[in-house]
Specification:
Layout (H helix, E strand, L loop, with lengths): L5 E6 L3 H10 L4 E2 L2 E8 L2 H10 L1 H6 E7 L7 H12 L6 E6 L7 H8 L3 E4 L5 H35 L3 H12 L6 E6 L2 E2 L2 H6 L8 H12 L4 E2 L6 E4 L4 E6 L8 E6 L6 H18 L6
Parallel strand pairs: 1-3, 1-4, 4-5, 5-6
Antiparallel strand pairs: 2-3, 7-8, 7-12, 9-10, 10-11, 11-12
Length: 288
């Protein structure tokens, strides 16, 4: 969820197609974040990009891929590589072709798990705009849903082992990267406080600053998430707080995080499910 831009890949062996597509997408924003566009002139170039660029391989939101490049089915083989070799099921893949007879539409959609199939004539500036907007939204929703499900499964499994195992599972959620801020507060204590302090950030980014901001935001009315007092608060500077109140056999947990955009309601609901799960299993996990 800590996105600063949306990664888009254009693959086509016609330089003019790449140039016109980039121009058409130059001002598109989704959730007020811009696009970061990568281009490749062949299947081989695209695979090399994936292998050399971590951002592209891990954060690709949408790709527009030509069919006929170095071979008649190079684009389809690239889709297969993304889905099978990279095991990427969430990036939105669109086939664009100047020779539709080379790859029947239904066969392509069924076999290669793509999001859409268009001729280059059909792919106008308005069409690209609507495809990018809808695709990024779908990428964010699918990616967050899958990540949340995997995290919940890992939390449940590791909670039976020890709290140390549980902490390892949620580590990446509670400690952001440079330029990102995230804190998990359980029963008034910041998890991983030493690691956060060691990064040498400004006062607001220190663990104590995170705890102070948590206490301040938690006093706000916010938006109720259920009938027991759980709530979501959006503060200044794109800080967000999801707070689960203490209940019988359940810890009080706050997840305070900062984003570059305002997450839509269904994304907040997914994050809430994680915070709820942590609150429910925390007190029942062995401290050994």
């Amino acid at each position: 969820m800590f996105f600063k831009e949306w990664v888009v890949l254009l693959v086509d062996d016609e330089p003019d197609v790449l140039s016109v597509s980039k121009l058409a997408m130059r001002s598109i924003k989704v959730y007020d974040l811009p696009l970061k566009i990568y281009t490749a002139a062949s299947k081989a170039d695209a695979i090399a990009l994936f292998q050399d660029n971590l951002e592209l391989s891990s954060s690709l939101a949408v790709a527009f891929i030509d069919v006929v490049m170095e071979t008649d089915r190079a684009g389809l083989e690239l889709c297969q590589y993304i889905r099978e070799e990279m095991e990427n099921k969430v990036s939105q893949l669109f086939i664009r072709t100047g020779q539709p007879g080379m790859a029947p539409e239904r066969e392509v959609i069924d076999r290669y798990d793509i999001s859409g199939y268009f001729t280059k004539v059909e792919t106008t500036e308005d069409k690209l705009y609507s495809l990018v907007k809808s695709s990024v939204r779908q990428f964010l929703s699918s990616g967050m849903a899958l990540a949340t499900l995997n995290l919940l499964n890992e939390m449940i499994v590791n909670s039976y082992a020890s709290r140390a195992n549980l902490l390892d599972t949620i580590h990446h959620i509670a400690v952001g990267n440079e330029g990102e801020s995230a804190w998990l507060i359980v029963d008034g204590q910041v998890l991983f406080a030493d690691e956060v302090n060691a990064k040498g950030r400004m006062a607001i980014y220190y663990a104590d600053g995170g705890l102070a901001l948590y206490k301040k935001l938690s006093q706000s009315e916010g938006f109720p998430l259920d009938f027991s007092g759980d709530k979501y608060i959006r503060g200044e500077g794109n800080f967000h707080l999801i707070q689960v109140t203490a209940k019988a056999h359940q810890a009080e947990v706050g997840y305070l995080f900062q984003t570059q955009f305002n997450p839509p309601e269904h994304i907040i609901a997914l994050v809430y499910s994680f915070v709820q799960a942590l609150a429910s299993i925390w007190n029942n996990t062995s401290t050994k």
